[in-house]
Amino acid sequence: AFGGSGGGDGVSAAAEEKPGAIVTYRYLNHRILDMVQHQVELIRSRMVRRIEWRIEQAANLRRLFPEGECLCSTPFEATGVEGLQMVFYPSCPDIRRARIITSSGLVNVAERAATGYDGVREGYCSYFLHVPAGASLRCWLSIGKNRREGRLAFERPGFHGRTNFCRYEFAADPAEDAVVLILEIDEAQQTVTETSSQN
Length: 199
Description:
The protein has five helices and twelve strands. Strands 1, 8, 9, 11 and 12 form a five-stranded antiparallel beta sheet that branches. Strands 2, 3, 4, 7 and 10 form a five-stranded antiparallel beta sheet that branches. It starts with 8 loop residues before the first helix and ends in a 9-residue tail after the last strand. By secondary structure, the chain is an alpha+beta fold.
């Protein structure tokens, strides 16, 4: 039993006067709700295997985004993998200066995606998927009727896709005036390294 009077001082006084008294401490973690919500969202994302990104004003995209300029989707989660992002070049990227902005900052796509994709052709568009570190995927990238398979694993953040994915005229739907990029994931896993610190 606890004794004493005078608010909080009574507990310490009782502990001093009565050997063997129990003193309790209560620790509150105000981030627990955010942590639980994040885990719930991650679990829900495991059921998501198909992502569609619809880009409007297809007739103007090549003029608004000339060679070397791209559009990036917002980062998203699918099949339990966080930090995925679609990158679309209406005009093929200029390998000398192609740059994109991802959630982690400014990245030179040429350094990571150009290997094996030489021979940029006029009139073609490019489609890349930005994959976070520790992720491995078996997936399909599609624009219109053009579909490409990808089997990839990245120890560091990287890009997968095709510089000459398809001719832009076959990517755009004139009736809808839109381009629809599709990501379909068959298999996926992500290794996450967590660090913690104690004050």
